[in-house]
Structure formats: structure tokens, C-alpha cells
Amino acid sequence: MQTATELGRRLNLWPITDHSGGLGSPEVSGEEFIVTHGPGLTPEDIEIIVEKDIKVALSPLIDPMIGGGLPPVYELITGSVPLENISFSIDVSGQTAVDPFASLRAMVNSARMQQVEANQTGITLGTLRVPGPDTEWLFSYRDALFTGTYGGANVLGLADQIGSLTPGKRADVIMVNMNMINMLPLTEVNIPMQLVQHGLPANVDTVIIEGQIRKLNGELVDVDMQKVINEAAQSQAAIRSRAGVVIDAKR
Fold this sequence. Notes:
This protein has helices at residues 2-10, 43-52, 62-65, 73-78, 100-119, 141-155, 191-198, 225-243, and strands at 34-37, 55-58, 86-88, 123-125, 128-130, 173-176, 204-209, 212-216, 219-220. By secondary structure, the protein is α/β, with parallel strands linked by helices. The strands form 3 sheets. It has a 4-stranded antiparallel beta sheet, with no helix packed on it. Strand 4 and strand 5 form a beta hairpin. It starts with a helix and ends in an 8-residue tail after the last helix. 26% of the residues are buried.
């Protein structure tokens, strides 16, 4: 690990990770390291993350799907990990949706469950514990949007280039259509909540990357989507055939 880290730093590579973010080698880990996933982190691990300024890329969709656990958002925040050092990753796009809204939703909902469980707050209705109306959530919807934008850029070491609408940074912008039917419950009431709890990839109307429009009116620009879909399906079938994999639809 030390040899690989020294080489990465000499070549100015960012990020560096061995999946655990160097938690097993804290003597060499540092700010360019990323811990991926998150379930199973101990208080001692979180202390190392804080001390070494290690970044965290949670996997809020894949980890629950494989039974690995919920993203430990509440534990990280109460353990003093800076919000800008937390974001999320997809991990395996062939198993879960590449959906940033769903990822942020999973992070918020997990943090709330963890906060209620940790503090045993609220009232119990049958078997359900319900937080009181005055509950102040430690991880808000606005916090979630922050982790999904600036946080993601900072975790990758790119906060000086992307992650916020700031003069001098790349002109990376998305525009979300808030007038679609799935967005109607909270129109013009609580935009962060609306985006995180109701947002879908289909709501993204426009995407601008480095000043170039790549999606407009809900359609990708200069991309033959049917061709992409066909080629992806053919590639998937060919890989399975070469590997001799038979999918068990019962799992």
C-alpha cells in the first residue's frame, strides 16, 4: 500500500483508494483517499477518517440491495466528518439504477432512521416509532443536495473546477423541470425536499457540460439512443454467452 501511495502522490493522482480508503494503513492514508461503501465503519474508523481528512463515497443503493447495510450518514456526521467530505457512488450500474435522486433519497431516509434509533425520540404507535413534529434532522434535504454537488466534486479532488456555480469553474449545469406530475405535491413550497423525495432522472430537462448543451427539452443532443440501447443489449448478451452465465430469475 505504501509503494502504491507514494507512486500515486508522485504522479499527482487523485483519488487513491483500496476500497477501504486506506483505513488499514492509516500511516500512509491522507486527504486524497476515498472510503467507498460505508456500512460496517466503526467509531475508530471514523476517527481515522476525520484525522486524516479521508473522503467518503457511500453506496446508498447497492449496499442495501446486496444486504450490506444502510449508508452510515448519521454516524459520519455525529463523528465530525465534514459534510463536504461525504458524497455517494453508484458502484455497480448493472445492478442498481444510475439515479442520483434515488441515491440522495436513500441517504436522507437512512440518516433519519439512524437518528431516531440512536436517540429513541418521538412516540411509539404500535410497533412504529414516529419522531415528534419538532424534530430537527441532522441531515437535511439541502445537506443532501450539497453532498450530491459540491461534496461529490470535493471527494474527487475537483472542487476547484466543478461542484458549484462559481465564476471561474466549468459551466456544468442541470435544469430540472419542476412542473411534471411527480413534482406537483410540493411545487414552490420546499424545493430541496421536492428534488430529493420526488425527483427522477426524467425530470432533468437540460444538461450543460463545460458550457455545451448535452441535453435539451428532455432529450440528449446528437445521441442516437436506440443505437446505444441496441449495442448495450448486444454487448451484455455476448458477455454472458462468453462467460457461460445463466441468470437465475428467482433470486
